[in-house]
Amino acid sequence: MSPPPIPSATRVLDAHVLARRGSFAVDVPLHADAGQVIAILGPNGAGKTTVLHVLAGLLEPTRASPQGGHLGQVTVDGDPWAGPSVSVAPEVRRVGLLAAEHLLFPHLTVLRNVAYGPRARGASRRDATRRAMAELEALGVADLAGRRPGQISHGQAQRVALARALATDPRLLLLDEPLSALDPAARPEVRAALASRLTAYDGVTVIVTHDPLDALTLADRLVFLEEGRIVQEGGPRDIVEHPRNRYVAQVAGLNLFSGTASDGLHVDVDGLTVVAGEHDHRGPSWVAFAPSAVALHPERPAGSPRNTWDLTVASVELIGQTARVRCTGVIDLVAEITAGSLTTLRLHPGSPVWASVKATEIRAYPA
Amino acid sequence: MIGLRTHRLRGNLVLLLLGALATAVILLPLVGLLVRAPWSDWPRYLADPIVRPAIWLSLVTTAATVAISMILGTPLAWLLSRADGRAAHWLRALVTVPVVLPPVVGGVALLLAYGRHGVVGAPLFELFGLRLPFTPYAVVLAQVFVSLPFYVLSVEGAMRGTDRRYALVASTLGARPLRAFLTVGLPLAAPGIAAGAALAAARALGEFGATITFAGNFAGETQTAPLAIYVALQSNPDAAVALSVAMLALAVLILGLLRGRWLR
Q: How near does any CA of chain A get to the CA of B44, in Å?
């Protein structure tokens, strides 16, 4: 259970989401300040999307907690949106919703899609259009304004959908697996657009995701749900350092380092220079990559990827057909390789090994 | 079509023959009509005193029927597409009745309901002095009765097929339910609406049984094109043929509208 809400000038979201579907109950308190990004993670059926739908008003919250006592409620900027005697309709709430599929209205142009929200909320056609153009520009898709959703790529469409969700100046931005339906090639581009747009957003963002990378790169706070309850919550660092749950540990399985971004490409990690994917922040930085992104070689790899390190195997753990190889040296990391390559490489504790990671697989984000 | 593969069809000679026969059954009467049509004298037959008013009445009443079907049928289709459960199930079955009912029976039912002594007709007459049967309004009422179900079922199918999440997105963007329906629900169902309107138009244009029973057959008043054809066949067969060809052309036009949206 999170601490009780502390009244403060910047507190935006105070909610206790209670919902019941048959025998399944969701009981999730959520609090966030202006500009914060909360990631909700958890296995399928943990109740993540239910939480979003209650916040958006698409689902009526249950008013009594399963164990009694608490009352389900959603308060934003001090205004009750849902509670014991309140239920504000979705169209009156200031929310923006972005789902895995862009759900752009197929019969409207990109510009009219983004202008739809301001128009529905009473803006004149001219003001709505101006607002929509500004939002499209902020996401780098202004040149698509005249196209129809069917004529643009999925990655572009998802950026347009984000622009549409933000064009109504929502206080709550709800992202439901926003990158999961994109093909892997389009994902980094949309993730980058999302990350940079969120830094300029002063409302609260709640992002539901399966992908630990999305959570670690985008969120200030991670909330892990299982069977409708919070099993762990905290900042990315707490979560990575002290997983207290199997699912959380899976997320913590990431290789995560703290360092200093010196330019748009390099991050200094304890004197070691890591070439990371493009980023536009400087100073304190996180560097993260998945164990599966690490390639192991018996000798210095030819063509030499920029992140290549001479390491020593510390331990090898076989889980099914996957081997987790823990390596130490100039950098400590975990690599995930197939059992087959483990045999080929003949790795055992003490073996020398070369590890390489493509820069595009490495994400750097402000600490 | 990629092209028929003869080696596959050869074994199915019986099916092939029956299929050809079916095509002939459909096509031959139309060919017969076109061959017998008095092409050179066409303008003269169309000038026949019963032809012009009949075509005009058919066009006007069909347009009115389509308009009424759209105004009344669209909300009903929306309700049916969104409602589940027993009541919706029965309502849908009820709406479908005119599709399977012989039109003459529909005409009798209309006459009993809207006639001078009918459930609706009696109060209408007493309160407003309104008499529906055997007026052009009766023609429209009869056509709406038989056409509306086709429209509703077509639009309901289209609305059921559209992703409901679009409406949810519209609501999170600030659109109240009516606005969301008008700006998102309707445009997304547009193909179904067009198909439904075309079906209703075709049905209204060809309506005979309910019309003659409920509206009568008064030239210039309630005599639609199909009724005029039937009458002309006794006295002036060539005029009947000319009128028939005109209606065939209209029907083909409607089929063309349907093809683009519905029959692809």
A: 47
- ipTM more than 0.95? no
Contact residues, chain A, for B176 at CB < 8 Å: 89, 91, 120
Q: Which of A92, A107, A165 sits opposite B188 (nearest CB)?
A: A107
| Distance from the B189 Cα atom to the nearest Cα atom in chain A, whole angstroms | 11
Pick the CATH number of B42-263 from 1.10.3720.10, 3.40.50.720, 3.40.50.300, 3.40.50.620: 1.10.3720.10
Indicate the domain borders of chain A: 11-245, 256-366
Instruction: Give domain A256-366's CATH architecture.
Output: Beta Barrel (2.40)
CA B221 to chain centroid, in Å, comes to 21
Cβ–Cβ of B172/A107 closer than 8 Å? no
Q: Identify the CATH class of A11-245.
A: alpha beta
pLDDT digits (tens, 9 = 90+) for B104-158: 999 999 999 998 888 898 888 888 888 889 999 999 999 999 999 999 999 999 9
DSSP per residue, B134-168: TSHHHHHHHHHHHHHHHHHHHHHHHHHHS-THHHH
With bands split at pLDDT 50, 70 and 90, how would you rate the model's confidence at B257? confident
**Are the C-beta atoms of residues B168 and B92 closer than 8 Å to each other?**
no
Residue B227, pLDDT above cutoff 90: yes
